[in-house]
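Dear support,

Our group has been running a series of protein-ligand predictions, and this particular one with BIS(adenosine)-5'-pentaphosphate is the one our PI (initials K.S.) wants archived with full inputs and outputs. We had some confusion internally about which version of the output was final, so please treat the block below as the authoritative record. The input we submitted was:
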Amino acid sequence: MRTILFGPPGAGKGTQAKRLVEIYGIPQLSTGDMLRAEKAAGTPLGKQAAAIMDAGGLVSDDIVIAMIEERTKLDDCKNGFLLDGFPRTIPQGEALNAMLANKGQKIDVVVGIDCPDEVVRDRAVYRRSCGACGTIFHLQSMPPKVDNTCDKCGHVGLTHRADDTLEAVNKRLTKFHKETAPLTSLYGAILQRVDGTQSPDVVTRAIRAILDPLKAKPAKKKPAKKKGASRH
Ligand code: AP5
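Confirmed final output from the archive:
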């Protein structure tokens, strides 16, 4: 199952992806997480991307396309993957289609998580993430049980992303409307939308209603014939 989670910054793509990974056993490929890891490791790529990301801009198409091309070659992608934050421009979408077509593959479904600008602004400003396992919190609607501590792994130290200032979020939203939203024209019939303003559990259920039917169904076992059974 090859799926794209599509939506504006803060729509809940990362939150849902982490749940869907557990449910379907396919990896989340988040270009944002990959770039943040490069940034944290202080690699040349991370240093190059850092200023662009923190200001709410988009990293160049060549860089993210190459990252996804390499990542999808790994063994854990053989049964599919969940793209989060990629593609984000028409050239990225076209490159992804070509990359998959070369392997006789395609995207099965694009799940669009709809969320109005005023809601995502609030979500970004109150978002905190675990520095160890990446679990995402919202200080008002999904706060950690213990202040500044991850519920999932116990790590102390929840971080506020540098691009979650109001100024950077506004810039990311402008980029989304101008460069990312037009991608829907590439996906037409395979784009299915869910209302991202509902609670996380309700959003997960709505996404599952789309993805569950795509799960590979195990072949039906023929019932074994009973010994001596005769027809009447
Ligand atoms: P990236 O990390 O991809 O950021 P994004 O797309 O802007 O998305 P976010 O991570 O901000 O939001 P989300 O939708 O995952 O929401 P979340 O679940 O966290 O990219 C960051 C940067 O990297 C980009 O700006 C760019 O510079 C660069 N980059 C990445 N990919 C690139 C690409 N392909 N090309 C070029 N540059 C690229 O939720 C947000 C908050 O809301 C949390 O607090 C959460 O707890 C809360 N929340 C979630 N769901 C709900 C709900 N249903 N109800 C209430 N609260 C909720």
